[in-house]
Specification:
By secondary structure, the protein is of the alpha+beta class. The protein is 54% helix and 21% strand. It has 6 helices and 9 strands; from the N terminus they run αββββββββαααβαα. β2 and β3 form a beta hairpin. α3 crosses α4 and α5 crosses α6.
Length: 292
């Protein structure tokens, strides 16, 4: 019985030695390189159990293949209009090609240093084709931040994968600052831009006001002309009706019509203080001397 137990323990010991000596596991979110005397023998990117030769014949180098966050340094760069700015970005990245990463970089700390230098070079190149107003402006139409970050990401991702086996998932601008010696000139430029915008708005307002006034004057002149024309038509129709009424009255009783017209003329010609020197036989004063 004791001998059997010894064989069982011996077997378990052999199994443990075999597992630890000839097997290794790759966890989810990790990758591994199997190196034999410094030469890469196998690349493992999928989680699972793998076989290897025991140390020191083969060595296992594991990498974290999950997405990682990294802030770039506070890099000072120059815009196309010769303005110095401090631009900080952040990157989301992961190891895409473990073999290339192992041979060109080696570990995550060196990768961050390389990515930081790469991001600084790309920022200098991209911002050299944009003016400061593409980042900071009172006019929202001038802002080109999404376009700038897209170009940065394309260039950083291409270079990072080609040289280091790193996939850059995202690049974004985290902070925009101005060096102290440039701050005053930038503020003056912003004030000048705003004054230019105000001048433009005032000019457009005066132009629109002049156009509105001109249109209103034209409309008023048209209304007045139409009103005068309509009034003249009404006056003409009124005069015609009056003439018709007078004609009908004259046809019915000519003597009465003439007599009444003379009375109206006299009434309109004199008042209580009027002194008239006249020939009594003249019309319409002749009615004053008529006996009948």
């Amino acid at each position: 019985m004791k001998k059997k137990i010894k064989w069982i323990f011996a077997f378990l010991l052999v199994v443990i030695v075999f597992v630890y000596g000839f097997c290794f596991t790759v966890r989810e979110g990790s990758s591994a390189i199997v190196s034999r005397f410094g030469e890469v023998r196998k690349v493992c990117t999928q989680a699972g159990l793998y076989f290897k030769l025991p140390s020191p014949f083969e060595k296992i180098i594991t990498f974290d293949a999950r997405s990682q966050y990294m802030d770039s340094g506070y890099n000072e760069t120059l815009t196309n209009d010769r303005k110095n700015i401090i631009l900080q970005t952040y990157l989301i990245w992961h190891i895409e090609d473990p073999l290339r990463f192992y041979t060109s970089v080696g570990d995550a700390e060196k990768a961050k240093s390389y990515l930081n230098d790469l991001a600084a070079n790309v920022k200098n190149g991209v911002m050299g084709s944009y003016e400061l107003s593409a980042l900071v402006s009172t006019d929202l139409d001038n802002i080109r931040i999404p376009e700038i970050t897209e170009k940065m990401q394309e260039q950083i991702a291409e270079k990072a994968f080609k040289d280091y086996g790193i996939a850059v998932e995202e690049v974004r601008i985290k902070r925009i600052a101005l060096p102290e010696n440039n701050l005053q000139s930038v503020l003056e430029q912003m004030i000048a831009d705003r004054e230019k915008q105000v001048t433009k708005l005032l000019s457009e307002g005066k132009r629109d006001a002049a156009q509105i006034i001109s249109e209103a004057d034209a409309k008023a002149a048209e209304l007045i002309a139409n009103g005068k024309l309509e009034a003249a038509k009404i006056d003409a129709e009124t005069e015609k009706k009056i003439a018709d009424i007078y004609g009908e009255a004259y046809d019915k009783n000519a003597e009465l019509f003439v007599y009444l017209k003379k009375l109206i003329a006299l009434e309109n010609s004199v008042s209580a203080d009027t002194v008239i020197i006249m020939n009594a036989e003249d019309s319409a004063f002749d009615i004053l001397t008529q006996n009948d």
